[in-house]
Amino acid sequence: MVHTTKISVRFADVDAFNHVNNAHYLTYMEHSRMYFFDDVIGKVDWENNGFIIARAEVNFILPIVLHDQIIVETKCSKIGTKSFDLSYKIFKIEGGTKTEMANGITVQVGFNYKNNKTIPLTEDWKKKLTSNS
Question: How many domains does the chain fold into?
Answer without folding.
Answer: 1
